[in-house]
Amino acid sequence: MVERPVDAGHIDHDAELNISGWNNWLENQSGRSAADMVGRNLLEAYPDLVTRRLDEYYRDALERQVRIVSQRLHGFLLSMPGIEGSAFTRMQQSARIAPLIEDEQVIGTITVIDDVTERIEREDRLVALLANEKTARAEAEAANRAKDEFLAIVSHELRTPLNAILGWAQILRTTQTNKESSTRGLEIIENNAKAQAKLIEDVLDASRIITGKLRLDVRPIDLGPIIKSAVETARPAAAAKSIHIETALEPWGGLVSGDPNRLRQIIWNLIFNAIKFTPNSGKVEVRLQRIDSQVQVTVKDTGQGISADFLPHVFDRFRQADSSRARTHGGLGLGLAIVRHLVELHGGTVHADSDGEGRGSTFTVKLPVMAVRSGETSGTQDASRITEAGAPGSANSPASQPALNNLRVLVVDNESDAREILNITLTQCGARVMTATSTREALEILEEWEPDVLVSDIGMPGEDGYSLISKVRALGPERGGNVPAVAVTGYAGSEERMRLLSAGYQVHVTKPVEMEELIIAIADVARRTQNA
């Protein structure tokens, strides 16, 4: 006996498949009334049952078999409209075809049809959800693996220069060395400290990118001087590998709107990347040209090239073509990811090309040309009064380091080593130096002694450099409140510079401090005050 649920379709047929029963559910769902359907042959009313070979199920039912029409195999038994808004144009059905038995004789068949459209859609959504979850989990696991590899690389890369620094520091402290060895050791310490600072800056830039905190200090820029400065900075590294750097720069390709320090960083990264992956006696070409409404910078090398498999991932964070411990080249694998983000922040694009491993690489940066209105000049102009001292290519280059003869400098830093280094360096340059360990101590000195320049660390415990400059400016001119001030901080970026400007500092020098830059900054703010 087959059950006849109310919310299902029921069709009764005789042994010839002539319809003898057609319930209300079928009338509502199919749009065909019982009066129209009763007496008609099922296969004539629905001829596609024959073409789909479902008529065989009815013959089996007449042989006392119960057959199931699976929606997964057949979709539907009888063609009926799907639910409005459904992904299916026809109702998805599950049907049972069973014999009708009376007095132990098969007198026909009965078909019970269930609408399973919503159930199938729920199942499909669940399957899709599970698939998406599986994909997301796989992507997260891959990202975590990449981050784990990246952290392992960070640990290695930071320890490598530290090993050289500590090793040579111990040699110089415990061993009697000649002048040549001492000079060599100090050069190694300095070079490795700079390398470590670059690694740390890359990590910080990656963090700023991820958190959306990397900002630009935008102004009109001619890329020619930026590229020349970057090339000159890279020449010693190229010379060490006998790599020839060739430049072809159009004299004036138009201004771009950008941050000079970040544009310089883009060019640096591309050139140093080319040098790193180019073997000895290779060549690096740097070109600047105007193409229609874009300025194009191309860095081409004769290096190891990029495989076709890795080329789509060359700008990804935490990705390196070789992340194994036995990899040939050092670095964090962040440089090109930072390049891409900086280029995109400037409204441009960067693209990598390579014919394969051992065939060299070409990186192309395209930036929109800045529209220049009538009366504007084609130079770069500062967007703020606060500067980053001693940037490569600036007028204040280390080569023109000034003397600080008899300049009174107050140094404020809670770290004794930092105070000692600044005291010794500035004194050697002719300055008269006093030091303070805190804001309170600095204010006490100002009551008795009037400095020409204040140099203060920002990240001090208790009252920091912002608190100090606020209290100094509140003193008034007659008590030294207008003293020019230089901020020394490990916090980089345009937002920090603007905050320092608003607080009352004139110049910002980033840690680790290049002493030439600091000396230039001190002389510069003192000169500005004298000329005011």
Structure description:
The protein has helices at residues 24-30, 34-37, 42-45, 48-51, 55-62, 71-74, 117-174, 179-211, 223-240, 260-276, 335-345, 416-428, 439-448, 465-473, 494-503, 515-531; strands at residues 9-14, 19-22, 67-69, 93-102, 105-115, 219-221, 244-249, 256-258, 283-291, 294-301, 349-353, 361-368, 387-388, 408-412, 432-436, 453-457, 485-489, 507-510. It has 16 helices and 18 strands. Residues 322-330 and 373-400 have low confidence and may be disordered. It is 43% helix and 19% strand. Helix 8 packs across helix 11 (335-345), helix 9 runs parallel beside helix 10 and helix 13 (439-448) packs parallel to helix 14 (465-473). It folds into 4 domains: 9-115, Beta-Lactamase (2-Layer Sandwich); 140-211, Signal transduction histidine kinase, dimerisation/phosphotransfer (DHp) domain (Helix Hairpins); 219-368, Histidine kinase-like ATPase, C-terminal domain (Heat Shock Protein 90), CATH 3.30.565; 387-531, Response regulator (Rossmann fold), CATH 3.40.50. The longest helix is centred in the first third of the chain and has 58 residues, at 117-174. The N and C termini lie far apart (107 Å). A hairpin with a 4-residue loop joins strand 1 (9-14) and strand 2. With 532 residues, it is α/β, with parallel strands linked by helices.
